Amino acid sequence: MLYIEKLNKSFKDRQVLQDLTLYVAPGEIYGLLGANGAGKTTTINIICNLLQADSGIVKVNHQLVSEATKKIIGIAPQENLLYRGLSCEENVKFFAKIYGLNRIERQKQVKATLKAVNLLDRAKSPVETLSGGMQRRLNIAVALVHQPKLVILDEPTTGLDIEARYEIWELIRQLKNQGITILLTTHFLDEAERLCNKIGILKNGQILAEGSLEELRTCIPAKEILVVQTSEAEKAIARAIACGFTPRRYGSDLSFWLPEHLELKEIIARFDGIHIDSISRQPIRLEHIYLELTQKC
Ligand SMILES: Nc1ncnc2c1ncn2[C@@H]1O[C@H](COP(=O)(O)OP(=O)(O)OP(=O)(O)O)[C@@H](O)[C@H]1O
Questions:
Q1: Which residue intervals define the domain ABC transporter in the entry (predicted)?
Q2: Residues near ligand 1 (Cβ within 6 A)
Q3: Which of 12, 33, 36 to mutate to test the pocket of ligand 1 (most atoms within 8 A of CB)?
Q4: Are residues 46 and 187 in the same domain?
Q5: Centre of ligand 1 from the C-alpha of residue 41, in Å
Q6: Residue 297's pLDDT band (boundaries 50, 70, 90)?
Q7: In the chain, N or C: fewer CB atoms in 10 Å?
Q8: Nearest atom of ligand 1 to the alpha carbon of 35
Q9: Domain end marker among 197, 217, 237
Q10: Looking at the predicted structure, is the pLDDT value of residue 27 above 90?
Q11: Which of 9, 11, 22 should be mutated for ligand 1, with most atoms under 8 A from CB?
């Protein structure tokens, strides 16, 4: 559905995308992850034909991006694209007109889209009277009104409380069930873990790694992660290394990669003679993979 090959883009002498290559299959939710400034929005702007690449190929549904492909893409940008004084219905209708839907299609699609984002009962409410979560859902409705094949959601849950995030996640799952292909950017790694069947990790305009969560787990040669609280960190690290555990710091957490599954009593035995306050075990999460890849390069 989305094919990007060797995409390059510079702003003056700063190269923002470097041979960026990625593929999104029909019906997939692809999570594009990267720190601020990694090049996510630049990539999105090129896909939406709002920005010209210096070189490379971008195809949506087998067509090179152009004014024509805009009609098969729906974009919900980071900043809500809404008219605050207009009602939900008026906002969606306005974008339906921009996308060239006729009067009958508009009537049908405005209703269907507001229903899909669970805002039909607020159709007549002005945007400024909606909660932040409702506004984000309306921002997504605007991206759906012309029934696009590819939907781009740029940080759809930033700034929302957990209940509003759950509602957006449910909406994204429903879109996937309808066969819509989704490109999602997020800084929430748990969000990518829950929703995406493919994840690409972007740094300095290049994809460092790409795949399902299972495939990305192979980036860390460990079975699980041990988090240790101790007042004798130096001693614990030296002992762990001698046992074949790989030390890492995740924030202030002293952690170790365990190369094999061990019983808790075996783990405790390895730290014999060292003062340990607590030991906990964690599965390998996307945050560990993300940090490993982005800090190494
Ligand atoms: N129009 C522009 N002119 C000059 N530099 C730009 C322009 N647009 C983006 N950049 C630069 O390109 C780099 C990538 O920006 P981009 O917005 O694509 O990153 P991002 O991954 O979307 O970041 P964020 O997570 O903060 O949204 C940044 O260093 C940014 O300052």
A1: 2-229
A2: 11, 16, 34, 36-42
A3: 36
A4: yes
A5: 7
A6: very low
A7: C
A8: 25
A9: 217
A10: yes
A11: 11
What does the pLDDT average to over 245-266? 90
What is the distance in angstroms between the CA of the first residue and the CA of the last residue of the chain? Answer: 29
- Average pLDDT score over residue span 117-138: 94
Alpha carbon distance 232, 27 (integer Å): 50
278 is in which domain, residue-wise? 224-296
pTM for this model (two decimals):
0.91
Could you please report the per-residue DSSP string of 116-153?
Answer: HTT-GGGTTSBGGGS-HHHHHHHHHHHHHTT--SEEEE
| Position in ligand 1 atom list of the atom nearest CA 187 | 25
ipTM (interface pTM): 0.96
- How confident is the model at residue 296, as a pLDDT? 66
Specify whether 75 is located in the same domain as 178: yes
Looking at residues 65-77, what average pLDDT do you find? 93
Cα of 58 vs centre of ligand 1, distance in Å, is 19
Neighbours of 151 (CB within 10 A): 22
Residue nearest to atom 5 of ligand 1 (CA): 11
**Could you tell me the sign of the dihedral formed by the alpha carbons of 37, 35, 17, 182, in that order?**
negative
From 40, 184, 187, the mutation candidate for ligand 1 (largest count of ligand atoms within 8 A of CB) is 40
Percentage with pLDDT > 90 across the chain: 84
Per the structure block, which two tokens stand in for 265?
Answer: 């009593």
Instruction: Find all residues with CB under 8 Å of 176, minimum gap 6, and list them.
Output: 27, 29, 182
pLDDT for the residue 295: 84
275 and 155 in a common domain: no
Do 279 and 175 have their domain in common? no
* Residue 38 predicted with pLDDT over 80: yes
The domain total for the chain is: 2
